[in-house]
Amino acid sequence: MPKSKRDKVVPLTVTKKKSYDTKKELVSEIQDCCDKYAHIFLIEVHNERNNLLKEIRESWKHSRMFLGRNKVMAFSLGRTVETEYKKDLHKLAKALVRKRGLLFTNEKVEDVKEWFKSHKQFCYARSGSIATETVVLPEGPLDFPHSMEPQLRQLGLPTRLKDGAVVLDQEHTVCTAGKVLNTQQAVILKHLGNCMAEFQVELMSHWSDNVFTVLSESNSAMEVNEPDSEDENEIIEDVNEN
């Protein structure tokens, strides 16, 4: 019998869903950390950059940092007074949204505050970021190699080559303070060496000895309003059964 010549869908990548056991291990691990470490900080990552975040993880090997799987982490702490693992942990759980995570440590609170306050780093802004300043390029020659002129023109700059130099035909506003950057603007700022974004891990709140303390004014105890995924509902039910 001849083989079918109909088009077949061939997956180029195969990813495995995280098993129930993996999620249960995370729940158990976080609850163990609640017993092992004296302090829990709710942290928020601003302008996340993997290489910079890796450096922070390396510096805090003596502690434990969890980022991602917010709903599972919130379940580990307990989302309500009735289900919280320890008193007032539900207040941390409610605020686990977006780019937030948990830092477990035995370091002194003031030392932790001082370390994270001093460890900020400027980096290139990405598309979707808010411009912190207005950048205007004056008419005239630009300090770019002649080979970049076609690329600069594609990015929207009114450029041309004159005697082997890149020249801007008229004044051009790259971005305006307070407005969202698009891809072209972000690339131009990078070529200009303008680091407009600031990478920072901010301490939002703190828990220790059953006492919850707000550290940042921007920390609003927002509940996770998004509907739970079926997988996370299933793992929560599975944990409760065991």
Inertia-based shape: extended
Sheet having the most strands = 6 strands, antiparallel
Low-confidence stretches: 221-242
Give the distance, in angstroms, between the N- and C-terminal Cα atoms.
52 Å
Listing every helix as H and every strand as E from the N terminus to the C terminus, the arrangement reads HEHEHHEHEEEHEEEHEEH
Radius of gyration: 25 Å
Describe this protein's structure.
With 242 residues, this protein is α+β, with helices and mostly antiparallel strands. The protein contains eight helices and eleven strands. The protein has helices at residues 20-36, 50-59, 70-77, 89-94, 109-118, 149-154, 183-191, 230-241; strands at 39-46, 64-67, 100-105, 121-123, 135-137, 140-141, 159-162, 165-168, 172-175, 197-208, 211-214. The strands form three sheets. Strands 1, 2, 3, 4, 10 and 11 form a six-stranded antiparallel sheet that branches. The chain has a three-stranded antiparallel sheet with strand order 6-8-7. Strands 5-9 form a two-stranded antiparallel sheet. Strand 7 (159-162) and strand 8 (165-168) form a beta hairpin. The protein is extended. The termini are far apart.
Layout of helices and strands, plus pairs?
Blueprint: H1 20-36, E1 39-46, H2 50-59, E2 64-67, H3 70-77, H4 89-94, E3 100-105, H5 109-118, E4 121-123, E5 135-137, E6 140-141, H6 149-154, E7 159-162, E8 165-168, E9 172-175, H7 183-191, E10 197-208, E11 211-214, H8 230-241
Antiparallel strand pairs: 1-3, 1-10, 2-3, 4-10, 5-9, 6-8, 7-8, 10-11
Helix pairs in contact: 1-3
